[in-house]
Amino acid sequence: MSAIEALSETVALSHRLLYRTGLATTRGHTSARIEGTETFIIKPWPHIQMHRVQAADLIVMDFDGNIVGATRKITRVSEWPIHAEIYRARPEIGSIVHTHQRWATMLGIAGRSILPVVGADLAAPVAEAVPVLDEDKSLIRSVEQGKLVARRMANAPALHLQNHGMVFAAPNVETATLDALQIEYQAEMTWRALLIGDPATIPPLDLRAAVEARAAGVVPEAWESYWKWVDRHPEALHRRTADI
């Protein structure tokens, strides 16, 4: 398997995990920069249920929005400028995820910060406040909008598209995907804690090691030992409660 084929498999896996964990259904997309080029791998239009995405479904686009690699006649996803303009502005970024996930999006709509409240290794993506794009609440379909997203995101790992969804940018697909999962967890716990009191946050010093590992693109062992297993056993993520 070539490096690009392996990368495509990981991008497809990211889509399936976003579906399995309830962060996306049909709308949303993960991309990966092809190293050393101005191209990226991404899911095309029309959207399909994300648990069905396979490497063969993906296409390659350049930063100007041209489809340069596809196995069949296909249409580009309309929000490609999110990906292209972040990649153009941030050479260190290897993967971007866009979702409409519930808890994180809700806090963005409310203008509230997602706080680092549970587990230093899980809270690293929100060690700093997530910026909010609040002047454009429509779909990001133009290059100008994409440039605005990249400017507002700056060097942050995530961005609220207020009244729309979330964008995550990381050194690799695994980290970008886990950022989406972990931020959703922090967002839900932040919201629930706010209902009953003033949430205590994890001190910056306690977050430092996890923040540095994340920035370096260190992939947690759980990616291989747990998340790939979840892809093959989706029933493992069914919500359960104790019956007394």
Beta-strand portion reads 5-15%
* Intertermini distance: 51 Å
| Low-confidence parts | none
Kindly identify the CATH topology: L-fuculose-1-phosphate Aldolase
Q: What is the CATH level 1 assignment?
A: Alpha Beta
Major sheet: order of its strands?
Answer: 4-3-2-1-5-8-7-6
Quaternary structure state of the chains depicted: single chain
Number of domains: 1
Number of discrete helical segments: 8
N to C succession of SSEs: HEEEEHEHHEHEEHHH
CATH evolutionary superfamily: Class II aldolase/adducin N-terminal domain
What is the rounded Rg? Answer: 17 Å
Return the structural class. Answer: alpha+beta
Mean pLDDT: 93
How helical, in percent, are the residues?
A: 40-55%
- Please give the CATH architecture: 3-Layer(aba) Sandwich
Strand element count: 8
How would the global form be characterised?
globular
User: How can the largest sheet be summarized?
Assistant: 8 strands, mixed
